[in-house]
Amino acid sequence: MTSNTVTVTSGSFESFGGDTCKDDLETSDLITCVADLQFNKQKLQEENNKFKLALEALEEANNQLTEDCYELHKQMKSAQQSIKRTNLLKEELEELKINLNVSEEEKTKIVTQNKQLEKENQALILKIQNLQEENKRNIMDIDRLERKIDELTKSEIEHQMKLHMCENTLLNKDASLHKKDLHIEDLKSVLVEYNTAIENLRREKNQLMHELQQSKQELLLNGFNLHVDGQLYRGIPEGKKSLHSELILAQSTEASGSEWLYNSVNPPSLDDVMDKEKMVLLREPEQIRTEFTATLQKLHEEVCAVETLIAASLQWVTDPEINVKERWEDKLTDLRHDLETKLNLCILKLRLLGNYKESLDKEFLKVVGNLERSEHKYRRVKKELHFRLRIKNRPSMLPRKKLSLCSASWRKLFLKGKISKH
Prior knowledge:
7 helices, cytoplasm
């Protein structure tokens, strides 16, 4: 192979036109390199064979070591299992000791509990007696509350009757107020008529005064001096003459005028004239009083009737400019307000009675609930007493059961110990 390669290389060099000497040198170098490579290859093959042998030896040793490890692992597992078994046995022994101690403590506790149960039984008997007494008292309270409820229902019925009576009186008062309104309207119309009559009388009086003044002027022109007119109107201011005074003056002027006309025809002496004038002045007021007393009495009676009616219902004031209807409406509103307040008081009392009845019903329900709870407690206490008496009659069964459980656990431990020895 080397010769062939060398020949090829030389031929190739020659074909390319290189030098043959140089080619010979390079081929020799290549031959030496190839020889070295072959030598190295042999050495490497030998070393590879050695390594393969060492590898096989190592694999055998590894297999032996794995087998040894597996065996050791098995031994460790068995040792761990034995340690666990010993620990379990120790724990079971400790548990058995604890159970024995617990059983002894429970025995002492049961003895103390029996003593406590005896005390509790006595206390429960006392409680039952107290509950029975409370039950009797609650029954008495229920009877008293039922009587109160009956009384309240009766009083409620009475209040309802009173309320109906108040409503009827209100309706009657409304009807009477309506009648009074109509009567007031009639009185207003009567007052208007009286005012028109007074105005007509004043007009007639003014006409008479005008005629009298004209007659005076005529008499003065004729030479007569009418000083009686001045005496009649003396002391009466012009702006403050009442109807009564105006009528008196009108009649006095008419009478004096007629006398003066008669005297004008037959002139008397001065003393006679003065005496007559005095007599007229003394007689005329009595005549006028007797003539107008009837009319004035009627007017006074009617006005007094109106005043008493309005004063009784509305506290009438004497000022005629005040509106009667407004006063009447105010009084009516006040009366309605008073009646509404009374009705509201009656309704409030009824509501209070209803609330009191509801509170009594709630108390009755509470008493019933207390009775039911006391009965439930009595039954529960009875059951507890029965159960505790049963426990007290069977105190020796519990330690026997615990001893049987302890013996069974000891047998299990003994069997486990035998199995571990084998």
